[in-house]
Amino acid sequence: MAVRLGPVATRTFYAGLIGVAYFMVPLASIGSPWVLITLVAAPVAAVPLRLVMSSATGAALIPALAWTGIAQLAFAVLFAVGLAVS
Question: What is the DSSP string of the chain?
Fold first, then answer.
């Protein structure tokens, strides 16, 4: 998909996906404010976002994959904890 979209659109799409995930957290917190604990993971998500939005290409983007996985795990765990506490 990244090849079809091109580098600029792919970077924008990645940033949009991260943004939508964190934008939805306050909407999900309407039922329970504990879900807002998920926002603690935002700084972790900023690391791969900075890497992707930089001019890095090819192998230089591999750390972004690892950090994206860590950010997803942190987001999921904190979201689950917020739901469980509520």
Answer: -HHHH-HHHHHHHHHHHHHHHHHHHHHHTTS-GGGGGGGGGHHHHHHHHHHHHTT--GGGGHHHHHHHHHHHHHHHHHHHHHHHH-
Task: Report pLDDT digits (tens) over 26-81.
Answer: 998 888 899 999 999 999 999 999 999 998 999 999 999 999 999 999 999 999 99
pTM recorded for the entire structure: 0.89
Closest C-alpha to 10, from 52, 50, 55: 52
Q: Provide CB contacts within 8 A for 4, sequence distance 6+.
A: none
Phi-psi region of 32 (alpha: psi -120 to 50; beta: other; left: phi over 0): beta
